Fold these 2 entries.
Entry 1:
Amino acid sequence: MDAFFIESKDPLFGIIIFFVLVFVVTFFSYWFNKYKKKEDYKHLDNFLKQFHSLPSQNELKVLITKGELSEKSWFLLANSYAKSGNYEKCIEIYAELLKVGDKANYRETLFLLGKTYFKAGFLERARVIFLEILKTNPRTPQALNYLILVYEQMRNYKEAIEVLEPLEELKKDVLLESTYLNILLILNSLKLGTDEKVDALLKIYKSSNLLAYLIFEYLFRVNPKVAWKNFDASKSELLIDILWSVEKKDLDFNIIMQNGFLKELYSAKGYIKEATSSSVFELNILINLEQRADATLGFEYICNSCKIVFPFAFHRCSNCHTIGTSRAELSLVKDYHKDFSEENNSFQ
């Protein structure tokens, strides 16, 4: 026994005991964590099996009521449904969360439900929800902005303009939005004639110098002569797709000859031969081709704000909802119109 106590007091013995304890603790920690992870994965697999096929509304109700997932997780799941275009399931999740979810998240959930209704095209339901939010929380800019979008889609431009007032009271800059909605109100008016609309649009443009594309798109379509008379040469590149589609008989060559970009544009079009080259690659190619190939300009439209590309011109981006951020991107495409014209002439 004495020999044992002497050995136990030896420093080497203490070191051995220390490493044995470290080994035992590490061993049990490793296998406990492995077991815990296995159980977690089993629980997750069991939960995800419920989503191999889309759950019904009753199944969603049961799952949300059980509380197996946090509300944050349900928000992420709803968002993934929305991104995949399954708005029905997204709406069901938000609607159920409003019933059994945390009341602290009630307003946020209601807002997300309204956004989803808007994206899904249920405009009246979206309108009711945003008005409900504003009834109790009138100083909610997000709800006000979406209510404007709803009214715009419903073509209730007067109501949309009225919504700008509380935004203005919240010190938000509404000049661009106000100008845009007033232009839409004029363009869609059944009481105003074409000449009255032209005069009203020119008055807005001269006072604000905003939304040239929206205004001149209409002017060149209904009255090219007035459009050229009030043409702003600094907007030539912005309006390139509109100018490209103007027929030769509607051109004002006096203005064109005073503008280098317009000379290049209509030389590329083949209407004149005043430019021998252009700094714009596509125009330069067409100028040098001199109508020897069936090529013309093609256009895609990029939102300067969110960088999403669209095949058609737009005034308000359908993705980020900004106004006047469209930019035309040029490309060379086959001129099918020229082929069609030549075929028609061959039959005459």
Entry 2:
Amino acid sequence: MSTSNSSWDLSLSEKVLRNAGTAVGSMFAAVGTAGNLLVMFIILRFPRMRTVPNVYIFCIALSDLAILTVAPFIIHFYRVGQWVFGPGSCEAESCIKFTSMFASFFLVSVFNVQRYQVIAHPLETRRRQSVRKAAVICLSMFVLALVANLPFCVTSVVVEEDVGGRNATVCRYFWPEWRSVPKFAEKARRLYLTSLGFLLPLSFNFTLYVLIIRKLRRQDAFRSAATRQREKDSATAVTKMPAFMTASFVVCTGPFHLYNFIRAVSDIHISEYVGMWVKPLFFGNSALDPVIYALMGTNFQDCLKQLFCRRPPPKGRPNDNVNEQSSFYAMDVIE
């Protein structure tokens, strides 16, 4: 189906809005693709980066990269107002996009679980964790994400619909036989996506942060002022990056899921342009993650300097003079 034969006759203001959304989405896609490829390359290139936390970082970068592979299809759809890639690409787009999205959310959650274990049980966690176990956990999260995405993988279809008073070819996520109850199918899909892909991970991660804060306060009551400050700094380093990753997740994907939730539970009319903007913003989460790694990962910064500036690797690690539990905090800081 050619774009010229199927695209809408758009007004100037509509073209401006769609082109602006295209520019924003394309920028996120380009930055995210380059950044996540760089993160994965550095973890594979430098042996000292192959740690348990970085296994989770690597897999999160992989899921972010997979999400960005379908960005051109979605961006083009919102730019021209039509799905021009055929039914096969519709099925592939929905399968890759939602599987990667669920995987990213699940991986961030298990990553935060590992952060909590480091704070709550540092010595036991040090003995029990390994790169291989972390890799198995990440693989299981990808499998779980694929299972969670089955309703979208098996119900994607290209249909002709009336959108805003215009006939458009769109990629939908329900069987044609469901067209007798399209409202139910659409609302159920949106509610399922928002609940499993946003509300549950957000609630789970918020609960983990509350537990971490309570654990740190209990530990502070039994330590001297000097030890308390030293371990507070180390614990902050352990939790800072996951906290910023979760904040990026909420800011970038929250509007998309709020849009879905409102469409699922109410009949409030929301302009199509809201959806056109919240979906490119969704890709901002995948673009911001590698920026967060670069700004907050000390060892990651060292590897970047070594890779691009040919600087020698740093000698030793900071905080070598702290006690065993605190030194484990420092050692387990995201690389």
